[in-house]
Amino acid sequence: MLTLPPDLESAIRTALATTPASRWIEAAQHLSLRYREQHRPGDQPLASTELDALGYAALVLPAAYAQLHGALAATAARIPGWAPTSLLDIGSGPGTALWAATRRWPSLTRLSAWEREPAFIRLGRSLAHASQSAAVREARWERVDALTLTEDRRPKTDDRRPESEDWGYATTQFAVRSTQSYDLVIIGHVLNELPPETQARVVAWAWAHTAGLLLLVEPGTPAGFAIVRAARDQLLADGAETIAPCVHNQPCPLAGDWCHFPQRLKRPEFQRRARAAPSEWEDAKWSYAAMARFAPASPAWGRVIREPTWNKAYAEVELSTQEGIVRQRALKRHRESFRHVKALEWGEVIEEGLGVNG
Prior knowledge:
Strands 1, 2, 3, 4, 5, 6, 7 and 8 form an 8-stranded mixed sheet that branches. Strands 9, 10, 11, 12 and 13 form a 5-stranded antiparallel sheet that branches. The longest helix is centred in the first third of the chain and has 18 residues, at 61-78. The chain contains 11 helices and 13 strands. It is globular and about 60 Å long. The chain is an alpha/beta fold. The two termini are 32 Å apart. Helix 4 (61-78) packs parallel to helix 5. The model is unreliable at 157-178 (pLDDT under 50).
């Protein structure tokens, strides 16, 4: 079971302590309601005020961290020798991906966080100051709207900086940066907030500035999976190699279903209060695609895409393989195969065929 890094959890508690608990709890619950309501891409942002940002940190950030942690771990397992040094996080929010990525790859030393909302930039910088990672503490924050990444392949920024307000982040000219590339680019929980016609252009811009690997993460819902699937198809057409979760570079063979994975999270106390949930844990589920300019370290046969099921007669598992979607069943009388299938973990990579007796 995953827990938040102690320095991140402590930083969030410190930020929440600046506001009466009743206010950030109410903000979190209002935010939860807005997420559940019908929200069309391109609508007004779900969170934009200082109080919204605190509510997000208390309610959403822990689960988002768990999802990013899970996607990064699965990706890193397929490319064990890779050691990126630069990261661009597009739509960074309060910097959740910065914390998750630097724990996965300590080699990261140059971090850029691009976020649209000033309240999230201020909160992100405040949290980052408490990080044990020098890279997170020294991350460069810039106000960038992902929508502007589609214009002439150059991001733009709002350079209006009231003299009475210190936004606390860079407002550099971007013409120089337009050709810069990054070892790792992350777009996490962003594409679903963009109009459909814009999503492909943002993915294209991100890929053009990816020197190594582009990671896309969305909520583990049918809608989130559809966005990731379309982006993966687009990147395959541009010559990208699939690192995870697929073990091939063919179009996704899944029909009438969606591919997603779970990460069990031990909820911090402030999240339980924000969610008004007594349970000490939750399964944060996500859909993702890790696409690179290089191939995985070694080939694999398949990946478990559902939790195995079993009854008195057999155990069964569903896998996405180089041969398509495969369901393998092990009869209980074949004890070794039966136990093997039962022990498989959702998301586990299978290097070679299971070879079970069905």
